[in-house]
Amino acid sequence: xxxxxxxxxxxxxxxxxxxxxxxxxxxxxxxxxxxxxxxxxxxxxxxxxxxxxxxxxxxxxxxxxxxxxxxxxxxxxxxxxxxxxxxxxxxxxxxxxxxxxxxxxxxxxxxxxxxxxxxxxxxxxxxxxxxxxxxxxxxxxxx
Length: 143
Hints:
Oligomer: single chain
Distance between the termini: 47 Å
Helix content: under 10%
Radius of gyration: 19 Å
Mean pLDDT: 79
Strand content: 35-45%
Shape: globular
Number of helices: 1
């Protein structure tokens, strides 16, 4: 007997409201060229190829946490710079150093976080988890 995940797929599908693009630099840093005037490695153009586009979600891993006050003070931990990308299971498996770009949003009333539009993220872990309806990867802001 197969487990029916259609209900879970519909619920999770409602949070996948960011238009995402996944890009891969197949040569990695190995094909970058040294610019002798600046001393920086410069990737050749075009260096990345689009491997997937579709609906997903990029969201922070955590929020600043407030600890119990000592007397009248409040201590806050700094927010994490890591984010997570929630992708449908049918999206291809991403590798470390692949790049995800938030290209837009289909969320009624505007994007969940307007500051993420146009931002690029580097995949830092192959996969945090794969479930019956979504795949989650850890990403870091690169610009």
